[in-house]
Every structure is written in structure tokens, then in C-alpha cells.
Amino acid sequence: QTSSQNPGLEVQVQPDPDPDPDPAGLQGGMMMMMTTEEPEPEPELGSAVRAVRSSRVLLGGVLRPALISIRDGKIHGVQEEEEEEEDASSSCEVWDVGDRVVMPGVVDSHVHVNEPGRTSWEGFWTATRAAAAGGVTTLVDMPLNSIPPTTTLGNLDEKMCVAEGQCFVDTAFWGGVIPGNQAH
């Protein structure tokens, strides 16, 4: 797996398309935020943000105020808050995103990235950037219908090397089993 090239906070900020998300799995996962307003400046890349606060965090299918604590780049805990409640996290740097929606990110396990081979169609840079713009935090590249197909370890290694340094979201690869390649 090639991990996100954005160290620190794993958050995507996007326009709010009025999603109907599956709220399961927020704890321990990645998140995305959506807004209908112009966003406040994001913390500097790699900064020491240890928590994200929003008046609209999706918890159990309901939007409610919460503080999301972050440890080692992952969600460590979610504390429900009252909107009037002042700073429950004065001991750490908090990114207050106001009324932007914070919810689990999407995993797309069926993506055909055409790099190397047909990069003019779509490469890792464009595929993962588009994924981030749409709220996808992880994509998995399919083994066939691309050049080279990932049906051998050599081809898988080639795709992984090409993806290195170009991914804006977490990226993984399926390996294809076809007649005659079971030894790979």
C-alpha cells in the first residue's frame, strides 16, 4: 500500500453534495469534511493539530457537535460536545471547522488507474487527486484493463514504483490471478 503523501492530518475538505453516508466505522478510521461555505485556512501541512472540532459530526447517523482526537495520524476518539461548551481540549491544538460536516471517508475498491501505459487516460496523480476531491480517502487499483496488468509480481512492483510520490489518498493494489500465473 502506498500511503497518503500528505503527512499529519488525514482530512479532505470538499463542497457539500448533501451526502447520504454510512456512519459506521468512524472510530479508528479516516475522515472527510464537506462545507457549503468558503473554508477557513487549513492548518499548515504537518502541523501539530491533535483534534478537530465541528458542530456537525456524523455519529450514528445523526449530525451532532463533537471533538475528534487524533493520535499518530489516526482518529483516536470522538467526544460528543454541547454547542455552548467551551474548550474541552485546552491541552492540545484544535482545528475548529465550525459547521462543516465531518464524516467517514469513502473507500473505492474498484479503480482502474492507467499508469504506466496509458497515462494520458489517467495516472495516479490525477486519479488520486480526483478521488480526494470527491471524498474518497482510499482507492484500490484493479489488476486488469490497464498497462501493465498486475498479474505478475514484476508488473505489481512496476505499478507501485510509478505510484510512489504521486498519491493524494491512500492507495492499494489488487493482484490478478489468471490461468498460468498461480506461481506469481
Helix content: 10-25%
Query: Total number of helical segments?
Result: 2
Please tell me the overall pLDDT. Answer: 75
Strand content: 25-35%
- Based on CA atoms alone, the radius of gyration comes out at 19 Å
The major β-sheet equals: 7 strands, mixed
Number of strands: 10
Overall, the morphology is elongated
**Series of secondary-structure elements, N-terminal to C-terminal:** EEEEEEEEHEHE
Please characterize this protein's 3D structure:
There is one protein chain. This protein has helices spanning 124-133, 153-163, and strands at 13-15, 31-35, 51-59, 62-71, 74-80, 94-96, 101-104, 106-111, 136-141, 170-173. The protein is mainly beta and 184 residues long. Strands 1, 2, 3, 4, 5, 6 and 7 form a seven-stranded mixed sheet that branches. The longest helix has 11 residues, at 153-163.
Which helices and strands, and how do they pair?
Elements: E1 13-15, E2 31-35, E3 51-59, E4 62-71, E5 74-80, E6 94-96, E7 101-104, E8 106-111, H1 124-133, E9 136-141, H2 153-163, E10 170-173
List keywords for this structure.
disordered N terminus, mainly beta, 2 helices, single chain, seven-stranded mixed β-sheet, 184 residues
Summarize this entry quickly.
This protein is mostly beta strands.
